Structures are given as C-alpha cells and as structure tokens.
C-alpha cells in the first residue's frame, strides 16, 4: 500500500497489441460458435449403440484422459514487433521524424497437454470399439422433409448418411436414398 497525498500511478502499461489480440480471440470465438451450426457432425460411432451409452463412454474416457494428461497451461509471449520511425509533415512542409519503438509481443496461454489428451481420448474410445466419424450435414431439402426426431441409437453408416442438427444440441442421422 502506498501512503501519499495523491493517487499512485501504475507502472504496468497495457499494450495496444495485447488488447487487439484479446479482441481477436473474442471475435474468433463468436464466429466459431455461429459457424458450428454449419459444421459437419463429428462423433464417435459404433453401430447399434445407444447414443446415451456412447456419450457416457466418451465422458468416462474424457475423465480418464484428463487424469492421465492434466491441463498444463504455460504462459507464453509472442515476438516483439519493431515499429520503424515515421516522418510527419505539416501543410507548410515542416517535417518531424519520430523515432521507432518496440511493441511487446502478445501474451497468451497454451495447454501443452491438449494434443496428448485428445490422443488418449481417441485411444480409449477405440478400445471400446468406437471410431471417430464426420458426417456431413443433410441438404436443406432432406432436413425439411425428415420428421423431427433425435437419433437415440447409432445406425449403420453408408456413403449416403447425413446429419440434421436439432435445436437443443441433439442431432439426427439420416440415411438418404
């Protein structure tokens, strides 16, 4: 605590680059959430298994993977950027050169175990007979014609399989054809 007659000024400055990087991350996440409704359906699949069992098996494997490869965040800093000197001139032709300066690199966090955790999850699910699949979204004409429902048991997949995303996070696998 500082004792004095006036306010204490902070010696830590916020770089514009760090603020811009944070804003870019927020905007990117918003775009990702919007586009996720347009993305194909990626799930673990084993024909004939109830969806609830697949989700329970996935949760068990996620917990196991998290136990074996816990979150290990590291704080890192991107490279600094040199902003070169600039010359500024007024309407009368008087010019002033302002020296260059360094902008510090953006500070970010990386979970170094994220990739390992994903591999452990895939291995655990494979040991239970599942395989990761990506099912394309159905064309609007098929989605509109299909009666609203949610898949409760994973059907056999064909080259003509497609997925319909429902409100509330459920989905329906349809075999066209």
Q: Can you give keywords for this protein?
A:
177 residues, alpha+beta, two-stranded antiparallel sheet
Walk me through the structure:
The chain has a domain of 81 residues. 33% of the residues lie in helices and 25% in strands. The protein is built from 4 helices and 10 strands; from the N terminus they run αβαββββββαβαββ. Strands 1-8 form a two-stranded antiparallel ribbon. A two-stranded antiparallel sheet has the order 2-7. The longest helix has 20 residues. The radius of gyration is 26 Å and the shape is elongated.
What is the helical fraction, as a range of percent? 25-40%
Instruction: Tell me the overall shape.
Output: elongated
Q: Which structural class do you get from the secondary structure elements?
A: alpha+beta
Radius of gyration: 26 Å
Query: What is the number of E strands?
Result: 10
What is the number of helical segments per DSSP (H or I, 4+ residues)? 4
SSE map:
Blueprint: H1 16-35, E1 41-45, H2 51-68, E2 73-77, E3 81-83, E4 86-89, E5 95-98, E6 101-103, E7 107-111, H3 114-127, E8 131-135, H4 140-145, E9 161-165, E10 171-175
Antiparallel strand pairs: 1-8, 2-7, 3-6, 4-5, 9-10
Helix pairs in contact: 2-3
Question: What can be said about this structure in brief?
Answer:
The protein contains four helices and ten strands. The protein is an alpha+beta fold.
């Amino acid at each position: 605590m500082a004792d004095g007659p006036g306010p204490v000024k902070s010696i830590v400055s916020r770089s514009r680059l760090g603020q811009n990087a944070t804003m870019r991350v927020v905007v990117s996440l918003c775009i990702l959430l919007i586009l996720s409704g347009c993305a194909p359906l990626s799930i673990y699949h084993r024909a004939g298994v109830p969806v609830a069992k697949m989700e329970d098996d996935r949760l068990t494997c996620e917990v196991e993977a998290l136990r074996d490869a816990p979150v290990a965040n590291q704080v890192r800093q991107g490279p600094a950027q040199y902003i070169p000197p600039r010359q500024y001139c007024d309407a009368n032709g008087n010019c002033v050169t302002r020296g260059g300066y360094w902008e510090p690199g953006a500070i970010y966090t990386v979970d170094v175990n994220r990739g390992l955790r994903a591999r452990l999850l895939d291995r655990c699910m494979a040991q239970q007979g599942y395989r990761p699949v990506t099912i394309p979204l159905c064309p609007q004409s098929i989605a509109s014609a299909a009666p609203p429902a949610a898949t409760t048991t994973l059907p056999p997949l064909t080259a003509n399989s497609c997925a319909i995303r429902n409100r509330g996070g459920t989905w329906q696998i349809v075999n066209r054809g």
